Task: structure prediction
Amino acid sequence: MPIISAGRWDLNYIDEGAGPAVVLIHGLAGDYTAWTRQVAALKANYRVVAFDNPGSGKSGKVDAATTMREMAESTLRLMDALHIESAHVVGRSMGGAIGQQMALLAPQRVRSLAMAASFATLDPLGRQLIENMRELLLWRKNWTQWARHVLPFFVSPEFFNNNREQMAIIERLIGDESRDQLSYKNLADALLTYDATNEIGSIGCPTLIMAGRFDPICSLGTAKLMQDHIPKAETVVFEKSSHFFLVEEAEKAMSVLSDWLRRHPHAEAKGG
Result:
């Protein structure tokens, strides 16, 4: 897979399909493979770009403090390098915050913004959970132990209890010992200080907010805050799910995203 220079970091990415561009941005505890299902479904009709965020997968490490704005600048540089003038941006969790900053920094580059389990600022519970997860890793310095402790925060009780094989797979994936611990700490710090509440009212593109009913990290309250502030926003709630509703209600999630892109085929990014 190619790696490209995108400012402060080199980014590992995939670029598949043809048509209007869709850029997929994963969350804090993942890499580009979090989008495997979406890439497979969308590449027949879209040019789909998914990449490892800085600090994840094979991209460059986040070895010093950073911000969501800097991460957004890096993503825009990736689009530059791939000659993508504008794109539909889809971000999960941290990826949604990066997408917000892209829409604020370069509104002419973002045709639409879809955010899954994301936030403009964390509420007190979400903040506490991110702090706890960061501190647990710093204390134990072991991803396997970290994954076992944090796994229940990501899915609903029903899914956790009734999908033991799938939970074991998820635990192995997020417990990958090759993940860089300092990068995680610096990215978690960036999430904890992120507050775009007073900025997101300037996002002018069509915006989809997707939220899990039982998500303690990015709650329905954080979704409502975004809905209340972003002018062209609409919200879909996944009633059976938590933070990982893209897995828990995979068919519905894919249907909602596909329908969103179909309904905005001619969305034009606007200059600032």
Notes: Strands lie at 3-6, 9-16, 21-25, 47-51, 87-92, 110-116, 207-212, 233-238. The chain has a mean pLDDT of 96. The chain has one domain: 3-263.
